[in-house]
Fold each of these.
Amino acid sequence: MNWAYFADETTQTPPSLLAEQGPEEWVWRTGHPLLTGGRAPDQLPERGSPPPDPLGSTGWLGVPLKLKDHVLGVIVARSYNPDLRFEPRHLDSLALVAGQVAMAIQRMRGEEVLRESEHKFRMLTESSAAGILIYQGERIIYGNPAALAMSGYSREEFLRLRFWDLVHPDHRELIKERGMARQRGEKIPSHYEFKIITKSGQSRWIDFTASVIPYEGQSAVVVMAFDITDRKQAEEQLAYIAHYDSLTGLPNRLLLEDRLSKHLAGCARDRERLALILLDLDRFKELNDTAGQEVGDELLRETARRLVRQPNGEAARLGSDQFVLVLAGEERSRRVDDSLNSLEEAFRQPMSVGSHDFHLGFSAGVSFYPEDGTTPEALIRCADIALARAKSFGGGAVEFYTESMSRMVSEKAGLRQQLRRALKRGELEAAYQLIYASTSGSVVGMEALVRWKRDGEDLLLPGSFIGVAEESDLILAIDQWMLRTACSQRRSWNDAGYAPVPVSVNLSARQFLKPGLASLIQAILEETGLPPAQLVLEITEATAMWDMASTIPILQQLDAMGVTMAIDDFGSGYSSLMYLKQLPIHILKIPQAFIQGLPLDLRDVAIVRAIIDLAHGLHLLVVAEGVETAEQLHFLAGIGCDAIQGFHCARPMPASQAAALLSR
């Protein structure tokens, strides 16, 4: 306890304030007013006798300064004039003064607390990393440095803004509605995320927390905001990765199924159909293996671009080289044929990567809602079954799903498993079809053909199982088995003294384009001891022209080894004469499709004559396949065909029968 104010006409030194030693302490301690030396000095004896005034006054008047029940201080009046005595009315007057003083002290303390609170608030907000602002109605009345930095405005500009001016148009109406409702006292979520627009026009995401505070007698809203743009961008990137193919930018399977579900719901509501086209690039795996992943990736991107440019349908990538085109709605689903024709036209143009052109075809399977399925999974599964059927024809085909295809898929899976076992059990056999000179009739070669002796049944021809093998790596195992078997057999005939005519072996596109072919052939020749000149490798025209950048080096390696190369089914593909002259090949084989109409079909006659003249002009030998009549033989001999192969001369036969027809 100390004197906050003291004025006395008799002394300048206030008395000491020690507990229990003066009337001031008594008033402080008891909280009661005190009047002594007055005309009613005995009015307070029941409260205990107060101590005398140490200054020797003749009259003493004191009242407590109280706020509620708390004593803040004491107001004292002294009289040293015996004729001037204090009375109870003086006590009442001083009590009234004390009440006013107490309220003034309370206001002062409140203002001090408020000033201290505002100081602390500014210290906290001005140094806070969070953006903090206060708005009332629509007007911003405060913004800390972090809020200014976040928005890009100066303080003066910021305080002239309406709060909604900061909110991105995508969210402005919702945030404004919530903000006004919050100030009206309605229960509104206090925390959410939305975008703002900075002074420069940039969009930024903020994490927003708001609460209502009183300000000048009205409600205001204090906002705390954190810039979460980086987090949002990371989330968007993760969402993009989860729903879009990173290579092509097309929707992936997850997003495709989600969109399909929505399309199907709409089709069910409106009683409309939907078509799903599943595409697979023909021979893409072989090309990717030979040309490299960078080339393969660019071809996939170009495929995606061509799909996106289609006038109808939504494109997606399922993975690898499989793509989807969805035609939703009655009108689009009726135009499946138009879409397929448009796709064929788009893929007819070569795809250029660097200095190389690639001719990519596709196979497709088509399914329909509601006929083939009512869920995304069912439609994709049915289209996949139809696609497998289309691929079994060797590529470039389109199949529409039918229920019978499901049975075929099961049968093919079973056949594939049996074929795998057949390789392990040694059930494959080689047959040999002799090739004759068209004029002399002497044997000039033979072609090794695979047969399958399945579980004691009759021999199965390649057409019944090679297509299944080509859909998996089984074809590689069959190719290599045929190479070893044919080379080993030819070496055995050499040892037995038979004429050293070459043996031809067909290579699948996958085997030809698989890296390391020359090393594989070299190893087999060394393993079997067969001279390279006695081996002819046949590849189809389509395989040869598939990727000229890879084909030419492979053929050059084989030619350098002394192996003869033949182009099978010449004229059935899309050969470029410019490329043909660059190929180190030795034989062209004319397919049966051009032979069977001879000599009456003038168009076949013209085509065969042209092929023979072309081949001889390039110093190549010509072999006609599928010769079945004497008339065909005589005609071919007459126009200069070098050799013939077909049932008219010899059917494929076991090695023991073929040996009997070889001269020693």
Amino acid sequence: MNNSKSNSILNMKITLLIFFLAFFSFLSFSYAQNSPVDYLKTHFQKPDDYLISKFKEYPYVLLGEAHAIKENLEFVHDLIPKLYDAGVYNLCMEFGAFEKQEQLDSLLTGETYNERLAKDMMFYYNVGWAYQEYYDLYKTVWEFNKTLKNGEKKFRIINLSYQYKWANFKGGVRNPENMSSVFYLGTPDKFRTSIIQKEIIDKKEKALIYMGTYHVFTHYKMPILKMNNDNFCDYHGGWVGSRLYEKFPDKVFAITFHTPLRSKAQFNPSYVSPANGEIENILHSIGTPSVGFDLKNSPLGKLRDDSFFSLCYNNFVMEDYFDGYIFLKPFKNLHGCTYDEDFFTGKTWEEIKGNFPDPDWRKSNNIEEYKEQIRQYSDIQERYKDVIQTSIPSVQHGEIIRLNNFPSKYVAPRNIDIWLPENFDSKKRYGVLYMHDGQMLFDADITWNHSEWKVDENISELNKMDKIKQVIVVGIWNTGLTRHSEYFPEKPFLKLPKNIQQNLLENSLQGKIQTDSYLKFIVHELKPYVDSKYSTYSDAKYTFITGSSMGGLISIYAISEYPEIFGGAACLSTHWPGDVNRKDDIIPNAFIEYLKNNLPDPKNHKIYFDFGTIGVDSLYEPYQQKVDKVMKIKGYTANSWETKKFPNRDHSERSWSERLQIPLKFLLKSD
């Protein structure tokens, strides 16, 4: 082969090599760009800039809210001058009656501001809308219009609703006849769309259309159960957004505020976090900024959602729901609007009762009861407690990494909260402390009983004193209803008489015992993930498991079943009775018998027990004494076992947090 031909082949090979390297680099880059986190970093926009930018392409931008959230209203207040600068001179609102439009126009352009008139116009629209931030929008626009020069176009608020005649509703089942007497000018969203047509579209103007979330649905249609349809589903599309989208699909863009979504169950929980919690999780990973972003044609739009809104849809994702998204704060940091007592000045109960909205849904016997209902509605922490309790905890020390709905082939998926200590160094290796009831460990502001274990505070204090080995904490959430069935030791359960087993299955174990499956989840799925993602010691000497009450039972069971995995267990207020409804000792005796035959070797394992003396804890001492005898017989000494009694301490996170350092120092004592 001559040199020329050889060089030609060599050049061709080099060219192909460069091509493939470039191609796979491009694929890697494209893949990275498709992650939600990278997308947010490369497309980051502040919420106001994001919303305003949509008017470059769409004359009608719809913004959906959950009602009476202060931060949402403050955002709209601050948006007024920016809308004007972008050539948008209209804010269309659900919250106001069009019969009062002429008065409203005069108020917003008048020399003086009449606050009483503003409140009275809102009262005319809805006798219960006593939230100051809504009618204060009138004042914000009035103040802005005062800054404009003579002859400059004024900013308008356009009321989209009308005063419904609820006095005409005489009770009973809602039907077309009685609803048409209430909504005498037509269905609310048909009427609202006609106002937008007349005041905005016909005048070739732009507008921000601000309404409750449902009313701004565009391409999304809400499912309705229909028993005789083949798939049991029908779809409702009569919203303002739907009507506009049908006429002007290329001119409408729908954005939702970060809003809790109804759960499929509609109760327990009532609300869930959008995208199965992934939006808050993703934003937490980049510092929880306020941000606006597209759902349509973006990685965040591909996030799966299993809320009520996914019913009757296959593989429902967030872009099926809305076009864009505005995130201001996590749910746990949102506040309710300001209740204004002065809203009712000069109003009588007879006047209010005569136009009481939805009287078949809400009942009040007097004005004070009605006012209390209004105040309660703006209590966001109470209204959205179900979803707030699934928030990522705030910690005083270190950092929380949320593994959202961690999957398992053994048990139901659940959240996992991994705590990394301050100055976590991936080049160092750490022990691992697995803790049950993971939602109760770090942040009292989001737990159901407003208590916590103070895990980050306790470990950090011991770390500073160099009292313990360095560990990360893996908080394993319980799933609520299945907690008892996952924490009740399975092998002792199988030794119980059949009638007791059946009673437990029917009354507390949700029909099945799944403790061994829960432990398989921890040992064969969760622990391998943790050890692969974090710089840990994977051997038993550095792996510990801890819990309280039923969590104490599952901890002693875990170290007995998997002594090669766990080197230590802390069992606080161990619930030896197993079932407080039983008055005999059959269940605790089964536990104790199991320990006689299965406790791990005391030479290389440590076990800690304790109990208080108040409430449920007052039941534990006789059983703990029996367990202590077994521990001695099995060769446990002060080096490998502790049992402590805490007088005047009860069965609560507060009590466990006060003494957590004691088992931590025992299990994790520095070498």
Amino acid sequence: MCGFVGFLSARAAHWGEPVLRDMANAIARRGPDDAGYWLDAQAGAALGHRRLAIVDLSDAGHQPMASGGGRYVLAFNGEIYNHLELRRELQAHGATGWRGRSDTETLLAGFDAWGIEKMLGKCVGMFAFAAWDRQERVLTLGRDRLGEKPLYYGWQGVGEDAAFLFGSELKALQAHPAFDAPVCRHALALFMRHSCVPAPYSIRQGIAKLPPGHLLTIGLHDRTPRVSDYWSGKTVVEQGLAQTFAGTPAQAVDALDALLRQAIAGQLMADVPLGALLSGGVDSSTVVALMQALAKERGAPPVRTFTIGFEEAGYDEAVHARAVARHLGTAHTELYMSHHHALAVIPALPRIYCEPFADSSQIPTYLVSQLARGHVTVSLSGDGGDELFGGYQRYWLAHRLWRRIAQMPRSMRRLAAASLVALSPSAWNRLLKPAQRLLPARQQARNWGDTLHKGAGILAAAGEMELYRLLVSAWPDPAAVVIDGIEPLTILTDAARQPTGGSFVHRLMALDMQSYLPDDILCKVDRAAMDCSLETRVPMLDHRVVEFAWSLPLGYKKRAGVSKWILREVLHRYVPRELIERPKMGFGIPLGEWLRGPLRGWAEELLAEPRLLRQGYFHPAPIRRKWAEHTSGQRNWARQLWTVLMFQSWIEGQGALS
């Protein structure tokens, strides 16, 4: 796991290694073990690299690295888990003279032998890379199939000072003298809805993110990058739905068990200590169970596992993780988190997430990564299970809601919605208070007025996709809060990018796999872990597992009311049901309570009306209204306010570029 940077420019010789060094130093935490720089001044190409040594710790793994034939120079971030198999195949075709054991050298040999795209089709791994073709004078950028590793790019500067910049993180591009990209208000509008900026957009005008499964090629004298996919999530979904797994449920469980074992076995490749993040939920417990089973079969020491707990009741899953770890016999380490930990991490978030990012689980993700890095250099996680196997309750909720409200004419739904918002949430709570005593105890404290107001927005939805977009939106109408913010098309609003066929639930899972997973979940994990110089690996996103998951009938994912049924069946072979079967909690934090308590002063300063007016990005009124309602306890606007707070915190650190 590493990070890389680079640029194409007629002034490459003028900027030279000092600029490359500045760009690479901006992401030094991604690779603290080594740094390398390569410059072809005549061709105008420059590559820089920061290395976190994982496989072949010797100087033979130093980057940027040239291929054996000299045609390609590569800066690479990630791991190719099957690179030893590929070496054997290359050797059978005459490859000789290996300099070391790194997967980077294997990747380059494959580029020489088969070309870039064909080699990527053979690779099992996570990666982003920049490859300079010295023969054709063409740069190729590439990103792994599911988007585990990030990659930014874009032209900056004018005339002779123009430069095509690229790198693992946005802050690396900002270190180049030509960088002068203002905040993109349209991307800010997307951020207010999604709590992240979805690819291919970035928060900076003229800078893009390469989508997962895509390649980009460009030459110095061709300002238009050519972007194409070598692997398509949309195609995988459509093919899986068209060619459904024909075996029995038991055969499907056997097949998934074998595929996950294969994926995890490959991801145990490392010359440094390796462990796993364990929440005690289905996904991470399955990964850890299979890791521990493989360790026992190989006579290896117990797996190192790490978890975060919370002092606040209702948020703590550490007790469940501890029970799973005890049953499996892992070497377990845990940290209990309080608001003091959050206060310590929050000032670093704008640096860690170099564009605004507002999934509040970023805080415990960073802390558990920090905890793990004290013991290991590589950690496996269970991310991806919800998107592939139907774990999010919102899939089934959206399906049930639309099936019910679609029977009512939209005009009537709009009238009903207007009636619900005619009374304030507090008025509804007063009106319903006598009836609440008849409800189960766990429901009596619920803010029913808040629930009714949220339901009003759903009632007015024009279609099932709009309903889902409302369910997953932080701010359902970003244009009402972002000044001059107009949302560009995303996969949620562009039907041409959405898979065809299957049910509504299938489509929602597919959309999450292609957007929410890479843009939120994987971004969160990559930035948090890499800031701690920890490599994370995600076995469930092995593309062979993904392709198999999409071939499964929906009834194998939710069966007899149980979500992720097939994954649970695999897990129950290793862990008793009673240790796992409980309501899903997620990796949330008590953010609403903290914003009314220990984080209130910090938030009030960032949300002050004079500051909002001076910065000129937001209409202050809706933000101030939500802040007042939240602090008074009338409503819970934690998610919406956190989105604003994360932008405010980020923009404060941008200096002249704000």
